[in-house]
Amino acid sequence: TFLSKTVVIATGANPRKLGLENEQEFTGRGIHYCAHCDGRFYKDKTVIVIGGGNSAVADALYMSRIAKKVYIVHRRDTLRATKVYNEPLMQAENVEFIWNSTVTEFITDKKVVGAKIKNINTGEATDIECDAIFVSIGRKPATELFGELLLDEGGYIVADESTKTSIDGVFAVGDVRTKALRQVV
Question: What one-character-per-residue DSSP string does 133-156 give?
């Protein structure tokens, strides 16, 4: 037990995982969660970006300037991302959309060499060769320890701009708290 007048929670948020076999084993060897962090390793290569929200579309747009080919695999038939991202992405000549589909398996040989893609409407499965897969399906706040604090529907700690939480003396900073923008730093 530690006693304190003030506690600052800065546990952040972690990328959501697909939960597929070998995902952990091949993280950093072709499976990535941040295009801006790891995208440069795939200059003039073929990559897959999984997701359809703002993070995925921003990652795909960034990778379209670096990679030779970018596949976007999304489980719906339209993007959920803000419209401001859509037009530049639709105009990128090296981007191909794979709608109504999910990645069901990573194809590996000491590193990622492709993915099995399944169309959720038809059940048809195809293999796509690639050098990397960027999983951009959202983030999960690291708030499991803080059940007494007020959390929003996404599990983030509710804190105002002064970082005060629902408990006096407890403050939440960074990506663990409810806010409009993430990873601002």
Answer: EEE-S-EEE--TT-TTS-B-TTSP
Among this protein's residues, is 77 annotated catalytic? no
Asked if residue 79 has pLDDT above 60, the reply is yes
Residues 6+ apart with CB under 8 A from 82: 54
pLDDT given at position 37: 92
- Rounded to whole angstroms, the Cα distance separating 153 from 58 reads 24
Give the pLDDT confidence score for residue 76 in this predicted structure.
Answer: 96
Q: Is 130 a catalytic residue?
A: no
Rounded CA separation 114/132 (Å): 8
Q: Which one of 37, 127, 152, 160 is the catalytic residue?
A: 37
Q: Is 38 a catalytic residue?
A: yes
98-134: per-residue pLDDT in tens?
999 999 999 999 999 999 999 999 999 999 999 999 9
Mean pLDDT to the nearest integer, 157-165: 93
Given the structure tokens 């697909």, which residue do they identify?
A: 18
Phi and psi of 35, rounded to 5°?
-65, -40
- Rounded to an integer, what distance in angstroms lies between the CA atom of residue 160 and that of residue 153? 16
